Automatic annotation (TrEMBL), chain A:
Span of domain ABC3 transporter permease C-terminal: 181-300
One GO CC term on file: plasma membrane
Superkingdom of origin organism: Bacteria
Protein name: Cell division protein FtsX
Major place of residence: membrane
Family classification: Belongs to the ABC-4 integral membrane protein family. FtsX subfamily.
InterPro entries the UniProt entry points to: ABC3_permease_C (IPR003838), FtsX (IPR004513), FtsX_ECD (IPR040690)
TrEMBL record, chain B:
Pfam families named in the record: ABC_tran (PF00005)
Xref: InterPro entries: AAA+_ATPase, ABC_transporter-like_ATP-bd, ABC_transporter-like_CS, ABC_transpr_LolD-like, Cell_div_FtsE, P-loop_NTPase
Record-stated family: Belongs to the ABC transporter superfamily.
NCBIfam families linked to this entry: FtsE
Localization (cell): Cell membrane
Protein's membrane topology: Peripheral membrane protein
Name recorded for this polypeptide: Cell division ATP-binding protein FtsE
Entry-linked Gene3D superfamilies: P-loop containing nucleotide triphosphate hydrolases (3.40.50.300)
PANTHER family documented for this protein: CELL DIVISION ATP-BINDING PROTEIN FTSE, IMPORT ATP-BINDING PROTEIN
Residues annotated as domain ABC transporter: 2-226
Subunit structure: Homodimer. Forms a membrane-associated complex with FtsX.
PROSITE patterns documented for this protein: ABC_TRANSPORTER_1 (PS00211), ABC_TRANSPORTER_2 (PS50893)
Amino acid sequence: MFTAFKRVIKSGWQSFRRNGGLSVATVFIMLMVIFLITSLYLLGGVTQFLIADLEEKVDISVYFKEDSSESNILKVKDEVAKIPEVKEIEYISKEEILDRFSQRYKDNQLLMESLQELGMNPFLPSLNIKAWQASQYGSVANFLENNSLKNIIEKVDYHERKPIIEKLSQITSNVNRVGLIFSITLAIVAVLVAFNTIRLAIYNLREEISIMRLVGASNWFIRGPFIIQGAIAGLVSAVISSLIVFAVCYFLSPKLEIVIPGFHLFNYLISNYLIVILGQFAIGVILGVFSSVIAIRRYLQV
Amino acid sequence: MIKFQTVTKIYPFNTIALDNVSFEVQPKEFISIVGKSGSGKTTLLKLLMAEEKPTRGRIFFEDQDIHKMKKSRLPRLRRKIGTVFQDYKLLPSKTAFENIAYVMEVMGASDKEIERDVPEVLEVVGLADKANNFPLQLSGGERQRVAIARALIHRPEVILADEPTGNLDPYNTSDIIKLLLRINELGTTVILATHNKGIINSLGRRVITLENGKVVRDEEKGKFRL
């Protein structure tokens, strides 16, 4: 048993080496496939980052009536904080918002003068709410409008922002959906190409397979070396593709950061390196082995 | 040991390759099958190795109907048969040594036995110095001798030889026939398909003559007559 296993591996490695041209072609095709799938994965990372970045910029504010007490506002705040969709909530008092306003516009004489003229604080205390996803603001606004303390709420600016928020949530879900369909289609095409390459390679060896059958080799003894060859091709392509991906990301990362500030492609890759590398090896080996097994089946009928 | 029972083989488009063929081969027999090209010699050997199925009739090997065997049992049957194919059927990506060793690997022989037996058999067929050549680097006659070496290396119970001397010069031919006779003396059944008149006449063994797929003569101590 062990001898047979050793022989299968040895013979697989031997034919991988001897059928040099064929092996190189197979490795090349599988390399493209693995590289493509990895790129799709990284592209997915970039889109997720962009979407998260956009969503980060969206929030809604709840303005309270002039005379509402701080304890009531904080009560609302605590209740809102309990909603699972809410990611962040911040209380901004009348004084604080005045401070911030004056800070920001201290060089704008006109504004400052009119504020002076007013002689009072025109701002309303507010809660600033951020949800996890753009699509969740509707339910948060809904909750606020049906709250027991709704009589102290002056207004929720959700309705003014609704078109923007809805548009954003539509865009993100569209980008996600299109991206997924696009990735799956490309991945299927790539897998089929690799499968066909291996099938052609084995088709070329059908004569040898029937000879092996005729001299009394069992099916596993014949199949084994082909499976090993497929696995080696997958492994080699995975190694090469890892090297290429890491190199490309390393050099592309600073350039990409100019276009998408705050996104470090290389760091993203490093923080996901286990999934990327294991994924590449898994794709390579599974593709090689699986294609060999399927392709060889029909020639074992002799 | 081997029994053909009213075997008929018809290929597509109504080509009758074998027509109602029956005969029996005893253990340790040396039997020649003669006939013109297309008379059915190769088909007969193919059916015996279960490479093809008969259209009608049954073929027994050691009392087992080989065409009723499970596919997974065929390798074991084939390991009892050593075949010299008319077109050699060597593995092009393996050297002469590896081609011969492959059969032993299939049988599960140890590396030590392979190291010992393969050079020996290469010596016997006169190719000791070509052990590391690939089939494409060998001449027709050399390939044929590798094929012969591969057929005997694992000491099978039966050797099927389909024109084993077709590409050999007269010296090599008589060497190979002497080799087959010696193997036969050691207890192996030999079935030799040929249309070499000289060989048949010098052998003086049983001869079955095929004509258009029919057995027209089956004689002990036969002569070559078409």
